[in-house]
Amino acid sequence: MHRRRFLAASLASSALAFSRSGNAQGAAPRAREFYQLRRYSLYSGPQAGLTEHFIADALIPALTRRGMGPVGAFRIDFGPETPQTLVLIPGPSVEALATLDLELAKDSEFLKAADAFWSAPAAAPAFLRTEYSLLAAFEGWPKLTPPAAAATKAKRIYQLRTYESPSYRDHVRKVEMFNNGEFEIFKAAGFNPVFFGDTIVGSRMPSLTYMLALPDAATMDKNWNAFRDNPDWKKLSTDQKYAYEPIVSNITNLVLSPLACSQV
After folding, report:
1. Per-residue DSSP letters for 51-101?
2. In terms of DSSP H, where are the helices of the chain?
3. Is 7 inside any structural domain?
4. pLDDT in tens, the chain (264 residues)
5. Who contacts 62 (Cβ-Cβ below 8 Å, separation ≥6)?
6. How far is 215 from 202, CA to CA, in rounded Å?
7. Residue 21 within any structural domain of the chain
8. What is the CATH number of the domain that holds 99?
9. Residue from 238, 250, 242 nearest 166 by CA
10. Count: domains in the chain
11. Is the pTM above the cut of 0.90?
């Protein structure tokens, strides 16, 4: 009961953002996903391989049996605190994601495949630490959208960007800014947006996180130049509804590459 009350309270800020942004004109809201974003901090050495085998051979198959997916699995190429492995898990509800490890512990097939990682001894741990965040998909981008290259395992990289805001008011305005035109500007600049999520449980809140897919680093630089030069972006970013003060106080930018097992 206490957990459900906590989760309901945690959803309040996200619901406020949705009600003031993507559904501003009274349209019926579309069903949207929730996301669990896992970050495994590792020591250099065998932990990276052990974690990748766990994700590929135990976690993703177990999630597939539960009807969850596509699942993203990535290593950080550029960013703080490397080596680090990230897993992006879409789910139908907050409760399904919040109780996921408890449910996996009842799955004998998962436990057998995961044993080396799941039961690693203290003398040789499988990871240094892990952190989970829960996010709610933006109403204007309600479903995770893998790039076409994911289906063929073609070369691709990803940007994972987190925007922190100085207040909940500013956070709501930034979410609204995405829903009121920023998605289209990303697509016009050549990006393949994967997901946009409002943090409902996590650190350094209020914040939002989104992911962009690209073929390579050169394209990433070219697309950001096109984004900044887009007249629609210049108009949106100077609108006094959003430009009355800096509504983003800190940006974390990670460049990722997919693991071989990634479905995204």
Report:
1. HHHHIIIIIHHHHHHTT--PPEEEEEEESSS-SEEEEEEEES-HHHHHTHH
2. 2-20, 47-54, 60-65, 94-98, 100-104, 108-118, 148-152, 168-177, 183-188, 217-229, 231-238, 240-243
3. no
4. 444 444 444 444 444 444 444 444 444 456 899 999 999 999 999 999 999 999 999 999 999 999 999 999 999 999 888 899 999 999 999 999 999 999 999 999 999 999 999 999 999 999 999 999 999 999 999 999 999 999 999 999 999 999 999 999 999 999 999 999 999 999 999 999 999 999 999 999 999 999 999 999 999 999 999 999 999 999 999 999 999 999 999 999 999 999 999 999
5. 104, 107, 109, 110, 113, 114
6. 30
7. no
8. 3.30.70.100
9. 250
10. 1
11. no
Assess if residue 221 is contained within a domain.
Answer: yes
Report how far apart the first and last C-alpha atoms of the chain are (Å, whole number): 35
Both structure tokens of 153? 């395992």
Q: Report residue 76 as tokens.
A: 């950080």
